[in-house]
Design goal:
single chain; about 240 residues; mainly alpha; 10 helices; about 0% strand; Fun_TF
């Protein structure tokens, strides 16, 4: 149950307004620590990492809502994403899923930093996330290699994580083959789930985000959604 709670928390994190935070209870944190070696059917080995990604999602939403950043918290979140490691040796598939969660968190952290500019006197290169372009390239590689969503006979309960990955990564993709990867992945998710939210998200990325990017306009996908009143198109 802990893994399911954390997964739901993660996929809803960006949809929670800053005025309504959802803090983790001490009891849940204790149970999470005690089950760290468990391979959950949804979050795999990465339940603890998903919790960090959820914190990043809530932080991104708070930056969008309040137009304020917290460089100290950003450094903490980056270290947590960077330093998380599974307790035990893992299967390649589980490691790949964990990498996807980590990359999603790092991309959203970049987007929060870009949304509001601040002067950080304690800037440290060791606490800097990898370049956004590198993370987007890694995400596209993972998305393109994701055969789970290619067949309805191999449905994964993590499809909403894939949807959020596409929603966060898609707007950052420049014209070219990468956009075809995003478009195809959205279409596969819709074929797999028959959930129309994935079509809406694909249309949002294609018709709203990409034209802005092509014109050189600075934007954050979540800010556009919040302004439009569509705070949780994948839920």
């Amino acid at each position: 149950m802990v893994g399911l709670y954390v997964y739901i928390d993660m996929i809803h994190s960006y949809a929670v307004p800053a005025a309504h935070p959802l803090p983790l209870s001490g009891k849940l944190a204790s149970r999470l620590a005690s089950s760290a070696g468990y391979v959950h059917p949804i979050t795999g080995i990465a339940t603890g990492l998903c919790l960090v990604v959820a914190r990043v999602g809530r932080y991104l939403r708070s930056v969008v809502d309040l137009h304020r950043r917290d460089p100290g918290l950003e450094r903490t979140l980056h270290r947590s994403l960077r330093d998380w490691q599974p307790r035990n040796p893992v299967h390649h598939q589980h490691a790949r899923i964990a990498d996807a969660y980590r990359i999603l968190g790092l991309i959203m952290l970049h987007q929060a930093r870009r949304h509001v500019t601040v002067v950080d006197d304690d800037d440290d290169e060791d606490d800097e996330p990898p370049p956004l372009s590198t993370l987007v390239a890694q995400a596209l590689h993972i998305i393109a290699a994701d055969h789970v969503t290619a067949s309805s006979t191999d449905a994964s309960s993590g499809v909403y994580t894939r949807g959020i990955m596409l929603l966060a990564v898609g707007p950052e993709v420049s014209p070219g083959a990468g956009r075809a990867v995003i478009t195809d992945a959205f279409a596969r998710l819709h074929r797999l789930t028959r959930v129309n939210h994935f079509l809406l998200a694909a249309r949002f990325v294609r018709d709203t985000c990409w034209p802005l990017r092509d014109r050189g306009v600075e934007f954050t996908w979540l800010d556009l959604l919040v302004r439009a009143g569509l705070t949780c198109v994948l839920i």
